[in-house]
Amino acid sequence: MNVNFTPDQADPARKFVNYTFRNMARLCATDGWDHSRGQSRERLQANLTAAPLGDRRGMVVGRQLFFFSHAYRLTADPVYRNCAQHLFEDLIDNFWDETDGGWYFSLTIDNGLSDTTKDLYGHAFIMFGLAHYLAIVHDDKALQWINRSNDIVLDRFALPGGWFAPATTRDWTPLGRTLEQNPHMHLLEAYLSLYKATKDEGFLRCAARIMSIYTEMLRTPDRSKVLEHLDERGQASGEKGSLIQPGHLYEWYWLVSEYADIAGLAEFKSDNALIMEWANRHCLDLDAGGIFDLVDTSANIISDRKRIWPMTERIKALTTLVREAPTEPSREALVGSITFMLENYCGADGSWHEYLSRGLEPDCDYLPLSTPYHVAMAALEVERLFGGPGAFGMTNSKSPEFP
User: By residue range, what is the domain housing residue 134?
Assistant: First the structure.
């Protein structure tokens, strides 16, 4: 795709992709990998040693499965394929509940049971990781686990209100009946990945179900905001009902556009711009730069810390804008966000700052190894602008810009 980047604009874009799938991937495969156990770590400390947490989550394994699969696609380095294969085996050997079905929330580092809760968020990310592993590594065993996982989600998490329970006990008693935005958004992301990987129309129908939840309940009536927490009646209530995570506004802008393209339903784009316009107006720090972590529906700043992942979501949203309206202002906004990311969050050794203060000082002493998923999703969309397949491309091809 030719988006008419100038050489000065293209340079930080290339640097960002290479940082992600070379520097960051190398860090995750070395310091971020428990070589004695053959599994990914949950978190690193600031000095890049393993954080002594004791537990590890299935969600993180699913995210890392996605990340290493794409690192292998872009670099052809067998180290990353080997990591992906180990993660797949780790999931099916250790995290699946052979008695009641479903994926455990967490295990000890020695694979003992830790938290046997079954959470929707974790199931969504494991399905997401399996889809990308299937598409890139071509391990056909992944497909049976994809189908088993989705059967569980549709059967065990469904609630009478039309949405899905945020979590259940090990034997499938719902732990609350509230409507939580975040796991539904990532379930949509998983379904689009699954459809692209398998061409199974059933997954596209599942995606349409999530889109209905988004348009009818999660999105505010003025269509400019997305709510995080709704009660058991599907209504925003109390203090939590007014909370908004700005990163999710950018993420929904990108995701709705992707759904519209994949499903061939362009009408979903008609008012999608309202989401990003509100986020740009109320969630960006126009003085210091960056994106506030948490605001409310009245645009009050609830948390002025600046985590890395909202910036990756803004990059994804801006790549959509550049593809659909490749103007000089849209290109400059994208390159400006990428440059901000590289200069303020990313270290040359593949490390990163998870949080910045309002004044852009590092504000965290650890590196969650769930974060490379966020960075990789943004980098894949940047690679797409140069001819790569993108986050939902689901092929082994890559842009010639990134040898």
Answer: 7-218+249-261+308-352+362-385
